[in-house]
Write a structure and sequence with these properties.
By secondary structure, this protein is of the alpha/beta class. It has one domain: Rossmann fold (3-Layer(aba) Sandwich). Helix content is 26%, strand content 19%. The strands form two sheets. It has a six-stranded parallel sheet with strand order 2-1-5-6-7-8, sandwiched between helices. The chain has a two-stranded antiparallel sheet with strand order 3-4. 37% of the residues are buried. Keywords: Fatty acid metabolism, Hydrolase, Lipid metabolism. This is Phospholipase/carboxylesterase/thioesterase domain-containing protein. One of its GO terms (biological process) is fatty acid metabolic process. Pfam families: Abhydrolase_2.
């Protein structure tokens, strides 16, 4: 079995360790050689929470997040550099880029999108849950040609009141402009959370993309 790597990026105010139970749902034999990583965001003041200091990958100006919410591109780019360093380290340790998957919820989903689209190589995939597009469309020119070949899975609850469903729907339209393939899945009745149904689908989605020999 070739080694694979799944990097999970949590949402605002959360922590990496709190999300570790997710890996227990991935029971297929293909995941026996998977290395998981659940980093925690640094603490910083967040504008939408009255500048309260909390774990945050970059600044968020308003909640609910709409398709047109203001974007902290500088903070985002710093966070992307840190994610790239984690991916680089894993590839240097011998994991094929095709077997590297970045997944994230909410703010972590937005960071997932930016991280895979700005990475110089094609990765196995990026999975965005209840996320949004965290940059302006002018950034599309900066996407490396190989990054545009990384497939994206985007899942969003229709009843989401924190990151509005319209912010999710704007994702595939943005990606189409960049020539990136995206599978969009809407979940009726789901609010701003991640469901077991979404995670089961993620398991099968990753499984079909894993390279079993290195």
């Amino acid at each position: 079995m070739a080694r694979s790597f799944i990097l999970w990026l949590h949402g605002l105010g959360d922590s990496g360790p709190a999300n570790e139970p997710i890996k227990t749902l991935f029971t297929s034999p293909e995941f026996r050689t998977t290395k998981w990583s659940f980093p925690s965001a640094p603490n910083s003041p967040v504008t939408c929470n009255y500048r309260a200091v909390m774990p945050s990958w970059f600044d968020i100006h308003e909640i609910p997040i709409t398709a047109d919410s203001p974007k902290d591109e500088d903070g985002l780019q710093k966070a992307v550099k840190n994610v790239h360093a984690m991916i680089d380290q894993e590839i240097a340790a011998g994991t094929n880029p095709d077997n590297v998957f970045v997944c994230g919820f909410s703010q972590g989903g937005a960071l997932t999108l930016a991280s895979v689209l700005l990475y110089p190589k094609t990765l196995g995939g990026g999975a965005v849950f209840s996320g949004w597009v965290p940059f302006n469309s002018s950034i599309i020119e900066q996407f490396p040609p190989d990054a545009r070949k990384t497939p994206i899975l985007w899942s969003h609850g229709i009843a989401d009141r924190t990151v509005l469903f319209e912010a999710g729907q704007a994702g595939p339209i943005f990606l189409e402009k960049a020539g990136v393939s995206c599978e969009f899945k809407a979940y009726p009745g789901l609010g701003h959370s991640i469901s077991n149904e979404e995670l089961q689908y993620l398991e099968s989605w990753i499984k079909t993309r894993l390279r079993t020999s290195s």
